[in-house]
Specification:
heterodimer, A: 319 residues, alpha+beta, D-amino Acid Aminotransferase, Chain A, domain 1, Dna Ligase, domain 1, 4-stranded antiparallel β-sheet, B: 509 residues, Immunoglobulin-like, 3 domains, 17 helices, 21% strand, elongated
């Protein structure tokens, strides 16, 4: 029975955890490059150099003393986001959608005081949310107003787009939709929904929620398939360029679509999860193997890589 | 990519097996050190009364040869000196010295493994002369009596002689006069000499052996039997009944070639008692003493040379890599979720003192209460390091309370709580909280169950006594374990848990 299941997984081209770690992450992601993606501030700096747009940064707080200047910086900002530079899995991100005389309003409507806000920043600096508990920096960024295209299938919070790239070639993509269970966060293990996206036309297809295949959003009840993702090709190009930017061969690229600014690079992940396969109802392995067999000419430029991927990977044509 | 790892693994395996083979083949280590073995425990106690001059007690003792291995010899000599001497084919223990007015107790004790001797080629022993006090006429008489059997093979000749000693001469019966003469000779010299003379006349090499019967007993007397060479091997014969013992012979020789088992000069043995009992020991113990005395490099560097209490530590320690191997297997091939990588190994080690049930119970209790407190502490917004310190303090407080409760009810298992790895418990509480927050209580409980399962499996492995002993005798097995770990590191196949994780894709294929 086990052998049968094993053969089936292989035929379906499912990428397992062990193979992902040994054959892709350890082989194509040099450890020395990890700080580039583990630190969002560094990612942002690099992205600027490669003309990849990111959410505009208001302020960086590195030391406890820096907090003194915060009030001045935030003076003109009605809404903003505070996040730890080295936070993992969406932890430590504080969204402020509005400010009132008595304090700051979170997207859930909860009101927090100035003291609470500075406490949160101290927490970030002391490394509570950072990987391995290292001391951290707090980034204060623009509040993202998500493109209305996903409004019907978003409970609250900001949906994001994950594209996995292998050697600079887009392999697979999905939309991550926050739910009430995920508390507005777009992380699948927190209960967000993953929706597969067809590579060629950027149309959503199948969806997964807590490892169950679903067709409708559990909170809003709207169907999840056949939503046209805006800026799809542009995002593929952005994702492809992150390879030239980091040199990491196996990467998860997370992006958001702002109503006014369009697609923005949010963060990069050197150990992208495997759940994207369930969202797309499709294994990664066959795509990865196809890329390894692709003519070397396609690796010359991001444009060539995207063009090749659009030509080769399409959920509809392959199935 | 895969080759260097494979080569390394093969090299490690070969290295490990080379040392093991060397130990087994050249140093004669047991293949299964932990396998049980039936042995005999021989003890001799005697009271010696002294004479005027120096007293000397000479007692034949068994020694290691083809048919038996002697281990764990213990000598009791009181104020006397002790020496082991070779005397012909015998080994003789010599107790000597001036004995105090009362008496001295001497003793000997040994563990003996009797092995069925493998057939081997050996030179036939020389046919010895007739006993010194036998005249020529008697020699001729004996030759006349057995001469008609000369054409028979040695084994048959022996049977005829054995029957003849009992008075059964077969057909045709010998001359009546010869029989009468023989009867007189028999009465004069006794059964044993008569037997020897007839065997000599029949050209059968023979020797007199004194020893014990291998039966479990509180007190066995030594007795004399005759061994006869039949061309291939020695046959043992009970001289009184003329019976040939069936193989394996249930006898333990102490002295051969007619040497008395016990001799005393200038003194007197007031009492001597031989005891034999059956015992079951591990094979390792048979070899233990030989290795302790050996000068070979690997024997000198054996872990058995460590002091006893350190040995106990190493017995466990040597199995920890096995535990780690289990974790590799359970995590990378099965897909068990655990808190931290080696946390279950440390838990398993700690369960040694508390026992598995108490250990798991305390573990679950501390993590659950700790989780509750951690939830509450969360509101205080403590920074990372002080917050972990608070939880650590809390864990120590729990330990103290458990120990006090244990002492109240006399539960040693609860008092041993202090040996649980408190740092690991602290980190587990923190991890449990973070997983609950980020992925839900179900995931956290699942991870806790996975950790407990892995800790239990590891605990069972590192407490397998035969495995402990095997690794202790052959510590080079660690290289073999490392080889498997290297191979595991190159396992890029699916985890069992992934069959479940991706099962939802199945319906769409």
């Amino acid at each position: 029975m086990i052998l049968k299941a094993k053969r089936w997984l292989h035929e379906f081209g499912i990428l397992g955890m062990n193979r992902r770690n040994a054959e892709y992450i350890m082989r194509f992601n040099p450890r020395s490059s990890f700080p580039m993606v583990d630190d969002k501030f560094m990612t942002k700096r690099l992205a600027e150099a490669y003309q990849i747009p990111t959410p505009p940064l208001y302020h960086v707080i590195e030391y406890h003393g820096d907090i003194a200047g915060l009030e001045k910086v935030l003076k003109g900002c009605q809404d903003f986001v505070i996040k730890p530079a080295r936070g993992a899995g969406g932890s430590g991100i504080l969204l402020i959608k509005d400010r009132q005389a008595s304090g700051f309003v979170k997207p859930s409507g909860e009101l927090i005081s100035w003291t609470d806000l500075t406490y949160h920043i101290f927490d970030i600096l002391s490394g509570i949310y950072s990987l391995e508990g290292l001391e951290d920096r707090a980034l204060i960024e623009t509040f993202i107003h998500p493109d209305p295209v996903f409004a019907a299938v978003t409970y609250y919070g900001v949906p994001d787009i994950r594209i996995v790239i292998y050697r600079g070639v887009p392999v697979m993509g999905m939309i991550r939709l926050p739910t009430s269970a995920s508390d507005g966060k777009a992380n699948l293990h927190r209960g967000a929904i993953g929706v597969g996206v067809d590579m060629r036309d950027g149309m959503t297809s199948t969806a997964v929620h807590r490892s169950m295949v679903i067709t409708h959003h559990p909170d809003t009840g709207h169907p999840l398939d056949n939503i046209q993702v805006p800026y799809w090709k542009e995002m593929l190009h952005m994702a492809a360029r992150t390879f030239d930017m980091t040199g990491l061969g196996y990467l998860g690229v997370d992006m958001v679509i702002d109503r006014e600014r369009g697609p923005l690079l949010l963060e990069l992940n050197a150990r992208p999860g495997l759940q994207i396969q369930v969202a797309n109802q499709k294994g990664l392995l066959k795509h990865l193997e196809l890329i390894d067999k692709a003519p070397s000419a396609i690796f010359d430029s991001p444009e060539a890589r995207v063009a090749w991927a659009l030509e080769t990977f399409s959920t509809r044509t392959l199935n | 990519m895969k080759r260097p790892a494979l080569l390394l693994a093969v090299a490690l395996l070969l290295f490990s097996f080379a040392i093991i083979s060397y130990r087994i083949i050249w140093l004669k280590y047991p293949i299964f050190p932990a396998a049980p073995e039936k042995v005999w425990q021989l003890t001799m106690d005697a009271h010696v009364k002294g004479g005027e001059k120096e007293t000397k007690v000479m007692i034949g003792v068994p020694y290691t040869h083809r048919g038996q291995i002697i281990a764990e010899e213990r000598i009791r000599s009181g104020t006397l000196g002790f020496n082991l001497l070779r005397e012909g084919p015998n080994q003789v223990g010599v107790w000597s010295g001036a004995i105090s007015p009362s008496s001295e107790v001497i003793g000997y004790r040994a563990t003996i493994k009797v092995q069925p001797p493998r057939p081997f080629k050996s030179k036939p022993p020389a046919l010895e002369l007739y006993p010194a006090n036998i005249g020529e006429a008697e020699q001729i008489l004996a030759k006349r009596l057995v001469g008609k059997w000369d054409p028979l093979p040695p084994a048959d000749r022996l049977r005829r002689v054995a029957a003849a000693v009992k008075g059964i001469w077969g057909t045709p019966p010998p001359d009546v006069q010869d029989l009468q003469a023989w009867s007189a000779f028999h009465d004069k010299h006794g059964r044993v000499t008569a037997f020897l003379v007839l065997l000599r006349a029949a050209h059968l090499p023979a020797r007199v052996v004194e020893g014990l019967e291998l039966v479990e007993s509180v007190a066995t007397p030594t007795f004399v039997w005759i061994e006869v060479w039949t061309g291939q091997e020695w046959e043992s014969i009970q001289p009184e009944k003329g019976e040939i013992y069936q193989k394996p012979v249930p006898l333990l020789p102490l002295t051969t070639d007619g040497l008395p088992a016990v001799r005393v000069l200038n003194g007197e043995l007031s009492e001597i008692r031989w005891t034999l009992s059956r015992e079951i020991i591990t094979q390792w113990r048979m070899h233990f003493e030989r290795i302790m005395r050996s000068d070979r490099f690997l024997d000198r560097w054996s872990l058995f040379r460590l002091p006893d209490d350190f040995q106990r530590t190493f017995r466990i320690l040597l199995l920890v890599p096995m535990g780690a191997l289990m974790i590799c297997l359970l995590r990378n091939m099965v897909g068990f979720p655990t808190f931290g990588i080696f946390m279950p190994v440390l838990m398993a080690l700690a369960f040694r003192n508390t026992g598995l049930l108490y250990g798991l119970g305390i573990f679950a209790g501390v993590v659950l209460i700790g989780y509750g407190v951690r939830r509450w502490i969360n509101k205080l917004r403590l920074l990372l390091v002080p917050r972990l310190s608070v939880i650590l303090t809390l864990v120590i407080i729990f330990f103290t309370v458990f120990a006090l409760i244990g002492s109240k009810f006399g539960l040693r298992e609860l008092m041993a709580v202090g040996l649980l790895p408190f740092v690991i418990l602290t980190m587990t509480i923190e991890r449990f909280f973070v997983i609950t927050e980020e992925a839900g209580a179900r995931e956290a409980l699942w991870t806790a169950a996975g950790s407990a399962a892995v800790a239990t499996i590891t605990h069972e492995i590192i407490h397998l006594e035969p495995l402990q002993l095997t690794f202790f005798v052959y510590p080079e097995l660690l290289f073999a374990v490392a080889a498997v770990q290297v191979l595991m590191g190159r396992y890029t196949g699916y985890r069992l848990s992934e069959f479940i994780r991706f099962r939802k894709l199945r319906g769409t294929s």
